[in-house]
Amino acid sequence: MSLDLNIRAERLALSAPFRISRGVKTHAEVVTVELRDGDGAVGRGECAPYPRYGETTSSVQAELALAAQALADGRTAADVMAAMSAGAARNALDCALWDLTARRDGRSVADRLQRPRPGRMATAVTISLDTPEAMQAAAAAVADAPLLKVKLDDVGPRERLLAVADAAPEARLIVDPNEGWTVATLDLMADVVERLHVILVEQPLPADDDMALKGLKYPAPICADESAHVAGDVGRLLGRYQSVNVKLDKAGGLTAALGMVQQARDLGLGVLAGCMVSSSLSIAPAMWVGALADAVDLDGPWWLEEDRAGGCRIERGVLYPPQRGFWGEAGAAA
Predict the structure, then answer these.
(1) Which residue of 69, 184, 188, 277 has the smallest Cβ count within 10 Å?
(2) Domains in the chain: boundaries
(3) Is 25 a catalytic residue?
């Protein structure tokens, strides 16, 4: 039976600018898909193209258009995805297939994985890169959240991190320079990291320069993000990183992300469940990774002016699952 794949690019307005070391965004650029079978069952998926990896909404749409043609020609979804590279396009199709299978076959994702449906979980709330004063005010507004992710670059990182910690003294912290530090900055920040409630330092050095981390004894575990996309990358992290950020848009879908988690566990590495700035349609499948992770960073929808109806919600740093039937459940309407 052939499958019909509908593809749509969307710009989702943010409630405030989102700044990291590589730039600023005011909208989440996502691509959503609907996968329909001949009986009318529909599965949905969403991805967020990542410019860091050369992806744009246009390139992802083009890749998905090729997949749509192959599906229309009668190729199986498994064969089509096997021919796709890991990344955002395959993520959207893979998540749509999980959703479609649940609705068509009457077997939810929970049934197929033989695990409980993810419940509420603490998630990092991101403090966007800004002046120390602005970051302090942003942290004060969410000081009751148990975990904050602090975006930093190579300019004044001590002042910014201390300002956030002063405003939210009880929160645990993830420090995320997005490849924006040097070894010298890493050394400069060691004493601050040691005395604050920092649980992870995420991708401090550019991925191409991270051999400098080999054998480094640091006050907090160092987590790979841009240095690891898929399960096959995880083995190369040993000796440099103690944890890995697993994102569906990097791995190329929920299927691959679950394999990446297993590979990390087999090698004794910690797992951070991560996401892009996106809607709840991206976060619902990512919560299955979150349920297996040591820490969760799935606050993508928190940045949106308006999320999808029935989606997740975040209150005081706690992520609540979407309403029943939103994604991946048997017999529910799309």
Answers:
(1) 184
(2) 4-106, 121-320
(3) no
Task: Specify whether the CB–CB gap between 251 and 260 falls below 8 A.
Answer: yes
Strands of the sheet containing 23-36, edge to edge, are 4-20, 23-36, 42-47
Tell me the pLDDT tens digit for each residue of 260-271: 999 999 999 999
Q: Which one from 25, 151, 214, 250 is the annotated catalytic residue? A: 151
**β-pair partners for 5:** 35
Of 4, 7, 10, 5, nearest to 308 by C-alpha is 10
Across the range 78-85, mean pLDDT stands at: 96
- Half-sphere exposure of residue 236, counting CA atoms within 13 Å on the CB side? 14
The answer to whether residue 223 scores a pLDDT higher than 70 is yes
Catalytic residue among 25, 149, 247, 250: 247
Q: Are 21 and 129 in contact (CB under 8 A)?
A: yes
Q: What is the pLDDT of residue 17?
A: 75
* CATH architecture for segment(s) 4-106: 2-Layer Sandwich (3.30)
Active-site annotation holds for 151: yes
